[in-house]
Specification:
22% strand, alpha/beta, single chain, Glutamyl-tRNA Synthetase, domain 2, binds adenosine-5'-triphosphate, binds magnesium ion, 7-stranded mixed sheet, 26% helix, 13 helices
């Protein structure tokens, strides 16, 4: 990273440059105050992490503050469950709003007053066109819009009708309050945008107090203004809304924050639309919002990703002014990099094959010393029991080994990690002809994994002592979607047709070393030679369930090397 890189917001970027300039010129009196403004209509996803890291990170970097604000203007889609999960998730990511938790709905009274102010100034009117008519009158990018026949109502009429809208006299959708700007404006957002709509719906915080609700555009900038935000950082799709953001601040004569847009995060094989994620949950394509295959932060967390890894990823992807799509492998790279450093290594066998060491004394148990993390000697060592009957991975044995297969096979000698050399002498098969047990002999002189006579083996495999093994379930994951761009819908189908039917594989007969007994949910491990795994919260009362966090192979590291 460059000299000016920040651990939270990464190398220098244009937003930081704007802030630095503003600090120099004293534009906001030397203050930096940002906010993260989620709508509580779903769970946060990895795209939101980018925005969270940016907003909280910039505030931290410049000694400023960052608020958490719920943009809750749509009672039909918003719920307390989402509010709770968002609060929990932002904390988990490692950020703190220091008590500045706000809700746009807390500003409804103020917004209503401001609407009245615009009506009195002749800059807003009640319109009786239906939503469909409003859309038709709006015109297109090449044609100007048509003025509403209600545009020239008197201030008194408008005040009266707006008050009655609020009082609940009119049905949903029958009227709106609109800003009187310019139906011929090049920017469609300035063609008399709707400020308020009628919606007889209970709000998760204000209950039935209101039956008119402000639109996003009439809420967001004013909320920023009330909170005295300096830099209102949002994604590129709001660029066309900035003139309206500015218009409201100017015409209301209120404190005016600066809106700055950056590119949305998109990832290959991943969907980041809350609407589509909700559909996956509702239609049962996944086990819930926190299914480890989901790109939600709660899913990612359950999968075993660390907040540090996500923050590193966000710092490294940077921000720009053009949308693109990043490789999912890049996110996984940051997860591996972090887990490789901190995850304890243990031995686990996912698809067990019994191995009997015929010349090892029956009933004897030895404690083998195993290294907890070769990357970090301070993590120490532990004892792993070794005995006559073991489990190894089925794929570590082949009765007829292909060329270049150096693991166990008849007559072949291999090293058991932290233990001995063993040599396969015979196999036992079931009636279907499948190998169900492998017989071996061991060389007692090779304890610790080296032969005193200097002879070499080409392979080292992991194992678990059968008598000491703990039963476990492992959930293995592939990408949730098999198409690189899951939004690319096949003809006649929706995006769910792009789901990968093999995204989840459950192995119920795994054997893990006894040190894993009672491992707490969300504890992360590296299963030797297999990959990163994390204890699932479904574990408990004797049951042990692991989620596969990531495979060992790092495709992104390879790509990076080539770049
Ligand atoms: P969706 O379109 O899926 O509903 P949204 O943008 O409406 O997402 P919000 O809850 O409004 O979701 O988002 C809160 C903040 O997070 C906004 O400032 C938004 O710009 C930002 N954000 C949302 N998605 C992404 C993304 N993919 N990358 C970066 N920032 C994002
Ligand atoms: Mg939004």
């Amino acid at each position: 990273m460059s000299e000016s890189a920040n651990p939270l917001t990464g190398p220098s970027n244009f937003i930081r440059d704007i802030i630095k300039e503003d600090l120099k010129t004293g534009k906001f009196g030397g203050r930096v105050h940002t906010r993260f403004p989620p709508e509580p209509n779903g769970y946060l996803h990895i795209g939101h992490a980018k925005s969270i890291c940016l907003n909280f990170g910039l505030a931290a970097e410049f000694g400023g503050q960052c608020n958490l604000r719920f943009d809750d203007t749509n009672p039909e889609k918003e719920e307390q469950e989402y509010v709770d999960s968002i609060i929990d998730t932002v904390h988990w990511l490692g950020f703190d709003w220091e008590g500045r938790l706000y809700y746009a709905s807390d500003y409804f009274d103020q917004l209503y007053e401001w609407a009245i102010r615009l009506i009195k100034a002749g800059k807003a009117y009640v319109c009786d066109l239906s939503a469909e008519e409003v859309r038709r009158y709006r015109g297109t990018l090449t044609e100007p819009g048509i003025e509403s026949p209600y545009r020239n109502r008197s201030v008194e009429q408008n005040l009266n009708l707006f008050e009655r809208m609020r009082a609940g006299e009119f049905p949903d959708g029958s009227r709106t309050l609109r800003t009187k700007i310019d139906m011929a404006a090049r920017n469609l957002n300035l063609r008399d945008p709707v400020m308020y709509r009628i919606l007889h719906a209970s709000h998760h915080r204000t209950g039935d107090k209101w039956c008119i609700y402000p639109m996003y555009d009439f809420t967001h900038g004013q909320s920023d203004s009330i909170e005295r935000i300096t830099h209102s950082i949002c994604t590129l799709e709001f660029e066309d809304h900035r003139p309206l953001y500015d218009w409201y601040c100017e015409n209301l004569g209120i404190y005016h924050p600066q809106q700055i847009e950056f590119d949305r995060l998109n990832l290959s094989y991943t969907l980041l639309s809350k609407r589509k994620l909700l559909k996956l949950v509702q239609d049962g394509h996944v086990r819930g919002w926190d299914d480890p295959r989901m790109p939600t932060l709660s899913g990612i967390r359950r999968r075993g990703y660390t907040p540090e890894a996500i923050r590193n990823f966000c710092a490294n992807i940077g921000v720009s002014k053009t949308n693109g799509t990043l490789e999912l492998a890049m996110l996984e790279h940051f997860v591996r990099e972090d887990l490789n450093r901190r995850g304890q290594r243990v031995m686990a066998v996912l698809r067990p094959l019994r191995v009997v060491i015929d010349n090892y004394p029956n009933g004897e148990v030895e404690e083998m010393e195993a290294v907890n993390n070769p990357e970090d000697s301070s993590m120490g060592t532990r004892k792993v029991p070794f005995s006559r009957v073991l489990y190894i991975e089925q794929e570590d044995f082949r009765e007829e080994p292909p060329k270049q297969y150096y693991r166990l096979s008849p007559g072949r000698e291999v090293r058991l990690r932290y233990a001995y050399f063993i040599k396969c002498t015979s196999v036992v098969k079931n009636e279907k002809g499948e190998v169900v047990e492998v017989h071996c002999t061991y060389d007692s002189a090779t304890r610790g994994g080296n032969a005193p006579d200097g002879r070499k083996v080409k392979s080292t495999i992991h194992w678990v002592s059968a008598a000491h093994a703990i039963e476990a379930e492992a959930r293995l994951y592939e990408n949730l979607f098999s198409k690189e761009n899951p939004n690319d819908e096949p003809q006649g189908n929706d995006f769910t047709a792009n789901l990968n039917p093999n995204s989840l594989e459950v192995l119920t007969n795994c054997k893990v070393e006894p040190s894993l007994a009672g491992a707490a949910p969300l504890t992360r491990f590296q299963f030797e030679r297999l990959g990163y795994f994390c204890v699932d919260p479904d574990s408990g009362s004797g049951k042990l369930v692991f989620n596969q966090t990531a495979r060992l192979r790092d495709t992104w590291a390879k790509i990076e090397k080539r770049l």
